[in-house]
Amino acid sequence: MLQIKSLTFNPFSENTYILYDETKEALIIDPGCYEKQEKGILYDFITEEQLKPVKIINTHCHIDHVLGNAFIKKTYNIPLWFHEKEEPILLAVGTYAPNYGFAQYQESTVDHFLQEGEIVKFGKTELKPIWVPGHSPGHLVLYHEASKNCIAGDTLFQGSIGRTDLPGGDHETLIHSIKEKLFSLPDEVVIHPGHGPTTTIGFEKLKNPFVGKNARN
């Protein structure tokens, strides 16, 4: 059975997710750990639960979601996967990281370009990547159909949506992506966002001021 652990890291309060099942194989999504203490929290959880990380996946490659990529790759010797449209986004992080106070940022490199519809497997678990551009050009969400859980990155939040004023962002594209891709999922699907608390598809369809029933778009 799928287990989801959320850890919140860095000054952006980014949600890092560790997914695992009864086999103890684990997937680390959007490792935002930067400070030594943050890395220790993630490492201790994996050690205490006796997990075996097998992949890192970035839903997208903005700085707050990739700060721990290099640490995780080196510590567990596992590959990094993300959508090919995110590679320029990742490569740019090193040039502006010091401006955000991350002078010790360590760069990482992709090992596999993940495409929409390509099944992600770990242990006995399968996730379906869904391309939801708008916040960034190659943004993927990861959907576990069996348990109706979706790791949504910075697409849909409780009562909000991802910002689109960063390079590669486009507001109309994001609105369309959410309505066409995410809102096609069952109402009971739990959204695990890149920031803030969980929500559900059904709740956001009704109440979200940007894409919900009464949104002005």
What is the topology?
Blueprint lengths: L2 E7 L4 E7 L4 E5 L6 H13 L3 E6 L5 H4 L2 H8 L3 E3 L4 H10 L15 E2 L6 E3 L2 E7 L8 E5 L4 E5 L2 E2 L2 E2 L9 H10 L9 E4 L5 E2 H7 L10
Parallel strand pairs: 3-4, 4-5, 5-6, 10-13
Antiparallel strand pairs: 1-2, 2-3, 7-8, 8-9, 9-10, 11-12, 13-14
What would your notes on this structure say?
- This protein is an alpha/beta fold and 217 residues long.
- The protein has one domain: Metallo-beta-lactamase, Chain A (4-Layer Sandwich), CATH 3.60.15.
- It is built from 6 helices and 14 strands.
- The strands form 3 sheets. It has a 6-stranded mixed beta sheet, covered by helices on one side. The protein has a 6-stranded mixed beta sheet with strand order 7-8-9-10-13-14.
- It is globular, with a radius of gyration of 16 Å.
- Its cofactor is Zn(2+).
- This is Beta-lactamase domain protein.
- Residues 13-195 form the Metallo-beta-lactamase domain.
- Structural class of the helix and strand makeup? alpha/beta
The tally of beta strands, per DSSP, is 14
Mind telling me which CATH architecture this is?
4-Layer Sandwich
Here the CATH topology equals Metallo-beta-lactamase, Chain A
Give the full name of the CATH homologous superfamily: Ribonuclease Z/Hydroxyacylglutathione hydrolase-like
- Radius of gyration, whole Å: 16 Å
Distance between the termini: 39 Å
What summary fits the major beta sheet?
6 strands, mixed
Reading off the top of the CATH hierarchy, the class is best stated as Alpha Beta
Order of helices and strands: EEEHEHHEHEEEEEEEHEEH
| Helix percentage | 10-25%
Question: Which percent band covers the strand fraction?
Answer: 25-35%
> Outline, from the CA principal axes?
globular
> How many helical elements?
6
**What is the averaged pLDDT score?**
97
The stretches of 5 or more residues where confidence is low (pLDDT under 50) are none
